[in-house]
Specification:
It is elongated, with a radius of gyration of 20 Å. β1 (67-71) and β2 form a beta hairpin. By secondary structure, it is an alpha+beta fold. Helix content is 36%, strand content 11%. The chain has helices at residues 15-22, 27-40, 54-64; strands spanning 67-71, 78-82.
């Protein structure tokens, strides 16, 4: 069975990031893990763009009619709270 061929990708960075990455022993592995982590933990609504479309904003506004954003007193994380009592912080 043949191993899957790996693809090489390149990207541009500013000087400060380049210098910081030079200190990382295995840059390729570090970057792979960082990218996978970012993809796995991106916002499910904006999908990591940081911007909601007009349609998403309308859905979000309807959602917020019965939900709120609150900051946990123990861990300081912002989380969603449902009016029905679901969504409480696990702390």
């Amino acid at each position: 069975m043949r191993a899957k061929k790996q693809e090489t990708m390149t990207f541009k960075v500013d000087e400060a990031l380049a210098e910081a990455l030079k200190q990382v022993p295995n840059r390729s592995e570090f970057i792979r893990k960082a990218v996978l982590h970012a993809l796995e933990n991106g916002c499910p609504l904006c999908q990591g763009t940081g911007i909601l479309s007009e349609e998403q904003q309308q859905h979000w506004a309807r959602f917020l009619a019965t939900h709120s954003l609150e900051r946990c007193q123990k861990c300081n994380a912002v989380h969603l709270v449902c009016e029905a009592g679901e969504g409480k912080c696990l702390h």
